[in-house]
Amino acid sequence: MSAYYSEAQNKASQRYQKKAYDTYLLRLYKGQKDQIQAYAESNGESLNGYINRLIAEDMGDRLSKPSKD
């Protein structure tokens, strides 16, 4: 796959992300993001994946599952 994406591909990706995902700005103290990210990566996870997993584990069945639209 090419490293270049066309404008149409970028727009299609943005439309999908807007439809499929909510976004939330998480504020951390200086330096914490790097610490958390390094920890997540040392366990084979992305920062986003790590945060989402922690939330899912804590909330359990109370967290709604994404629909397969």
Give a summary of the structure in a few sentences.
The protein is an all-alpha fold and 69 residues long. It has helices at residues 7-20, 32-42, 47-59.
Summarize the structure in words:
This protein has 69 residues and is mainly alpha-helical. Helices cover 55% and strands 0% of the residues. The protein has three helices and no strands. The radius of gyration is 16 Å and the shape is extended. It starts with 6 loop residues before the first helix and ends in a 10-residue tail after the last helix. The mean pLDDT is 91.
What's the layout of helices and strands?
Elements: H1 7-20, H2 32-42, H3 47-59
Uncertain segments of ≥5 residues (pLDDT<50)?
Answer: none
Shape: extended
Q: Helical content, roughly?
A: 55-70%
Determine the mean pLDDT: 91
Q: Helices and strands, in N-to-C order?
A: HHH
Q: Specify the biggest β-sheet.
A: none
- By secondary-structure content and strand pairing, the structural class works out as mainly alpha
- Counted beta strands: 0
User: Measured on Cα atoms, how large is the radius of gyration?
Assistant: 16 Å
* Binned strand content: under 5%
Measured between the Cα atoms of the first and last residue, the distance is 26 Å
- Total helix count? 3
Key phrases:
mainly alpha
